[in-house]
């Protein structure tokens, strides 16, 4: 029985490696962004509290991070908390704000082992101290890592990001740091929270919603979109491989022919 179980595990992991190698034969998106939607609905379907869905969703982030890193993805951006999410019940927000600590408590050593570099974009000021401390420790402990960038969008909203960038550009023009005539798309990009990162090649949104919900409005201008009805806690390694495989079949023209 034990032998059979071990053989089965081994064969399934060989199978997984085959799939990964198959995917790597064609260009893998350098930057994947994910809107991880449907955690509450996943829980409701099972008569569980919404927080159970968020907790399950957190485990999926770990699995998808590992696979993306193995595939050679250079940046993985995940939308963990929007500026609109503060409107949710206080107990739910409090639970959500504990997830980074739980995630990193168990997973930070693995991230370090995998050479993953943790980053965050969003308004840090409004986050509870305990949340910010955990995230900042992860950022510090992984700052010299050279592998995949795992970028958490946390208390992030794209219109606010763009307005903030615009105001910073105005300040720098007024103070003479830059000239008005230098302001172009490339320069403006470097005033956004994604400074230094390439634009996403692939956006994934789960749970059947077909909209951007104030996520990376500037950066997604030429991105390929991939939507699925699957709730985020049910999103598996196979779903990511399917999204990438579909991406590889599309031809991107960036507005040309
Ligand atoms: C809940 C589904 C990981 C979406 C995923 C604070 C909603 C699970 C983190 C996380 C959340 C964030 C920063 C970090 C390490 C981990 C996370 C939140 C929600 C909101 F440095 N999952 N996760 N953060 N969910």
Model description:
The chain is an alpha/beta fold. The chain has a domain at 28-157 and 198-224 and 240-248: Undecaprenyl pyrophosphate synthetase. 47% of the residues lie in helices and 13% in strands. It is built from 9 helices and 6 strands. A 6-stranded parallel sheet has the order 3-4-2-1-5-6, sandwiched between helices. Helix 2 crosses helix 3 and helix 3 (50-71) runs parallel beside helix 5. The radius of gyration is 19 Å and the shape is globular. The mean pLDDT is 95. It binds ligand V0D. Residues 36, 39, 54, 57-58, 61, 80-81, 96-97, 99-100, 103-104, 118, 135, 138, 152, 154, 232 line the site of ligand V0D. Homodimer.
Name the descriptors.
257 residues, Undecaprenyl pyrophosphate synthetase, six-stranded parallel sheet, 9 helices
Short description:
The chain is 47% helix and 13% strand.
Structural class, from secondary structure content? alpha/beta
End-to-end CA span: 59 Å
Name the helicity range. Answer: 40-55%
In terms of per-residue confidence, which ranges show pLDDT below 50 for 5 or more consecutive residues? none
- Averaging pLDDT over every residue, what do you get? 95
Percent strand equals 5-15%
The CATH H-level superfamily of the domain at 28-157 and 198-224 and 240-248 is: Decaprenyl diphosphate synthase-like
Bound molecules: ligand V0D
Overall morphology: globular
Number of strands: 6
Return the CATH topology of the domain at 28-157 and 198-224 and 240-248: Undecaprenyl pyrophosphate synthetase
| CATH architectural grouping of the domain at 28-157 and 198-224 and 240-248 | 3-Layer(aba) Sandwich
Note the total helix count. 9
Query: What is the strand arrangement across the widest sheet?
Result: 3-4-2-1-5-6
Largest sheet: 6 strands, parallel
Rg (CA only): 19 Å
SSE arrangement, N to C: HEHHEHHEHEHHEEH
Q: Briefly, what CATH class of the domain at 28-157 and 198-224 and 240-248?
A: Alpha Beta
């Amino acid at each position: 029985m034990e032998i059979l179980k071990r053989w089965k595990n081994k064969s399934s992991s060989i199978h997984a490696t085959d799939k990964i190698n198959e995917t790597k034969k064609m260009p893998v998106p350098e930057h994947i962004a994910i809107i991880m939607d449907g955690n509450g609905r996943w829980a409701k379907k099972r008569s569980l509290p919404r927080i159970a869905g968020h907790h399950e969703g957190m485990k999926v982030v770990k699995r998808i991070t590992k696979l993306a890193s193995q595939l050679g993805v250079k940046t993985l951006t995940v939308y963990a908390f929007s500026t609109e999410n503060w409107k949710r019940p206080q107990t739910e927000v409090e639970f959500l704000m504990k997830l980074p600590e739980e995630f990193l408590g168990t997973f930070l050593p693995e991230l370090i082992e995998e050479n993953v570099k943790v980053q965050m974009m969003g308004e840090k000021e409004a986050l509870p101290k305990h949340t910010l401390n955990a995230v900042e420790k992860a950022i510090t402990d992984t700052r010299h890592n050279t592998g995949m960038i795992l970028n958490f969008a946390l208390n992030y909203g794209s219109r606010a990001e763009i307005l903030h960038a615009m105001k910073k550009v105005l300040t720098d023009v007024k103070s003479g740091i830059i000239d008005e005539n230098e302001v172009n798309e490339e320069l403006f990009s470097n005033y956004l929270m994604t400074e230094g990162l390439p634009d996403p090649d692939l956006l994934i949104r789960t749970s059947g919603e077909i909209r951007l919900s104030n996520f990376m409005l500037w950066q997604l201008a030429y991105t390929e979109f991939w939507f699925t009805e699957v709730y985020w806690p049910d999103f598996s390694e196979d779903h990511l491989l399917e999204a990438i495989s579909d991406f590889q079949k599309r031809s991107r023209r960036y507005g040309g022919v």
